[in-house]
Predict the 3D structure of the following.
Amino acid sequence: MLKNCNWQIALLNSSHDKSHFDCGIDALNDYIKKLATQDMKRYVSNVFAATHTNENQVYGYYTLSASAIDLENLPRSIQQRLPRYTSVPATLLGRLAVDKDAQGQGLGTHMLASAVQRVIDSELAWAIFVIKAKDKNAAGFYQKFGFLPFESAPQLLWASREELKIFM
Ligand SMILES: CC(C)(COP(=O)(O)OP(=O)(O)OC[C@H]1O[C@@H](n2cnc3c(N)ncnc32)[C@H](O)[C@@H]1OP(=O)(O)O)[C@@H](O)C(=O)NCCC(=O)NCCS
């Protein structure tokens, strides 16, 4: 049991121990163990790992990348607030996973808030925060916080930057 722990979230580095990580989904376990460092080296995504404060075992992680969304995929009400470019700059939360030992104790929520705060604090210009959910079940987690699925791709969810400012 890991109740009442303080979490530390930092860019994945060689001091992190990810060897025990198990969120119950093989693809997400393999990603942190085998692919995350490569993706960071190639500037495909940045990976942020959650550990107990001053410890190195990874209990959760999320990835962030730059992205873009076709303007026509957004509702008219949002389109009207944006310039008439074909696509809109976005940030992408590509993966988020919590170890089975830490699930149901608020770490997923904490990492989602951390990801949003991180991109709001950055100097990058972006208008839409996009999340790629692993499956329908995972999409339910994000919908709980108000993220909306795209009609054309229900596993991709989004919120505008303006809405997220209020959320924070
Ligand atoms: C989905 C996941 C990220 C949630 O993380 P967590 O730390 O267990 O979630 P939290 O403890 O922060 O839960 C916050 C709330 O979300 C709810 N919740 C958790 N998973 C949910 C889901 N799949 N659908 C709807 N609600 C969900 C919890 O019941 C809780 O509700 P409450 O505040 O009313 O009690 C985690 O269970 C996980 O990593 N699962 C396996 C990998 C995965 O599916 N990743 C999803 C992204 S691809």
The chain has one domain: 7-167. The radius of gyration is 16 Å. The first strand starts at residue 7 and ends at 11. The mean pLDDT is 94.
